[in-house]
Description:
Elements: H1 54-69, H2 78-94, H3 106-131, H4 139-170, E1 173-178, H5 181-192, E2 199-205, E3 217-218, H6 221-230, E4 235-238, H7 243-251, E5 255-259, E6 271-272, E7 275-280, H8 289-306, H9 308-322, E8 327-333, E9 339-345, H10 353-358, H11 370-378, H12 385-391, E10 395-397, H13 404-413, E11 426-428, H14 430-433, H15 442-454, H16 458-471
Helix pairs in contact: 1-2, 1-4, 2-3, 3-4, 8-12, 9-11
Amino acid sequence: MTTESTSVPPSPGPWPQAGTGHAPGLASLAPQRRRSERLALPPRRPAPSRTAAVPLIVADGLAVLLAAALLPEPHRELRLFLLVAGCVLVLNGYAGLHRPGALTSVLDELPALAARAAVAWCVAAAFVAAYTPAQAIGPGALGFGYATHLAAVCTGRGIVHAHRRRAARAHPRSALVVGGTAAARRFAAAVAQHPGYGIRPVGIVGSRPDGEPGLPVLSSPEEIHRAVIQNTVRDAVFLTEDTGLVTLFQNYGCTTWRVGGERHDGPMGDHLWGYGCRRLVPLSERRGLTAKRALDVVLAGPALALALPVLLLCALAVRLSDGPGVLFRQERVGQHGRLFTLLKFRTLRPADETESATRWSVANDRRMSTVGNFLRRSSLDELPQLWNVLRGDMSLVGPRPERPYFVAQFSRIHAGYADRHRMPVGLTGLAQVHGLRGDTSIEDRCRFDNHYIDHWSLWQDVRILLRTAAGLVRPAGS
C-alpha cells in the first residue's frame, strides 16, 4: 500500500459522526430528536421482512389446490398437487414474482405466471406418467387443470394487489427524492398529487438548498441521517445515478428506485405517473450470495486442514525467531462497518498499540527478522485468516479489510471508499490480482473493489481464486 495519492494525518482522527446542529429547513420534516444520532459507516441494513411475500405465496398455493380439486376423479391425487405446487412456488420465487410491490397489476404478471404454470403442469404430468402410467393425465384433463389454475391464480393475486393498493393509498410510505433540485421538485409534486402509488415525498436530496418553498433540500449525510430516522423513510427515489447514496439508503433499510432518464425493461405498469421505474436490488438480495458463502466454507475448511503442517512450521519459525506471541491479532473493519479481529502470523512486534493501529506500512522496517520478511513476501503470514473465513468474518474473495483508523481517513479522502464495505472483505480480491498489493494506490484499489462488487458473480470469484493461486509462484508480498 502507498500514500502516494493519499495524505494521512499523523495522529488518529475521530470516527466520522453526525453533527449536532439542526439542518436548515429540516424542521418542516419532523421535530428534531433529543440526542444526535451517530453516523459512521452506513449502518447495518436490517433483515428484510419475509412476511410480505406470504399473501402471494398463499394465492399461488390455493390456486393449485383449487385446480387439483376440480380435476376428474382418476387424476385427483396428492402427488400431482404437490409436484405442481412445488414447481410453481420455486419458479415464481426465482423470477421474483413473490416480491411485494404496490404498483404491480395481475395483467402485468400474466405472461410470466402463464409460462411458469405451463411448465409446472407439464413437468408434473410427465413425472406421473413415467412412474405410474395407469394414472397418467390426458391432454384434456391437463388443459382443464392448467386453465383452472391460471384463472384461480389471477383472481387470488388480483385480490392481493388490490388490497395492497388500497393500503398504500391510505398509508403512503415516506420517501426522499434524489436528483437535481428542479427535477426532483417536479417529480415530488406529481407523485404527491397521485397518492395511489403509495409514496409521500418528505424531502429532496440535492447538492445544496435552492431557497424555494416546499420540501426541504438535504445536502449532507447528517441531514439525510436525521431525515431517515425522524420520518421513518422507507423509499428513496433516484432521478440520477449515485452508487454511494444508493448503498447508503439500502443500508438504512430503504427500498431504492430508479426512475426516468433511461429505458426500463419490465411491464408497462411499472411507472410512477409516467416515469419509468425499476427497483434497485440490494447486494444482499442478489442471487448467488448464499453460494458465495458455501464456496468459502467448502474451500476454506479443507484448505485449513491441508495447510496445518505449513501452519505449524510457520508458527515454530516465528517462535524461535521472534519469541512468544506467534499470532498477531488486529481489529479490522468488515462488511457494513462491523469490526472483527483479524489473525496473522507475527512478522514484526510494534512498539505499542498506537503504532499497530496507525502505522501505514512496515514492509521495509529494519526490525523485521528474516523469518518475518520471508512470511510477508510469500504471503504465508496471511494463512491464519482461513479461520476468519470459516468464522464468517471474511470471504475468500472480496475487498481487503483495513484498520478503523485508516477506514475513517480514506472514507473522507476518497469518494466511494466506504462503499467497499457493501461486500464481505476477503483474503484476496480483484485489486490484488491486478498487482495492487503492498505499496500501491488506495484510489486504484477502491476503484477495483467497487467494480468487483458492482459486477459480482460466483464465476468471477472462482477466476480470482485461480489467478491468486497462479500468482503465488511469483510472490510479491503485501
